[in-house]
Amino acid sequence: MEPERAPMRPKNMTRTRLVVAGLILILGVGTPLAHPAQAGPRYPGTGDRITVVLTSDRQYNSAVAWYDAHNRMRRQSDVPLNRFDKRTGLWSGSLVYTSRVRHQKIDTVLQSDGRFARCAVWINKTKVREKTARGPRYATAYCH
Question: What is the CATH code for 13-28+45-143?
Answer without folding.
Answer: 2.60.40.2880
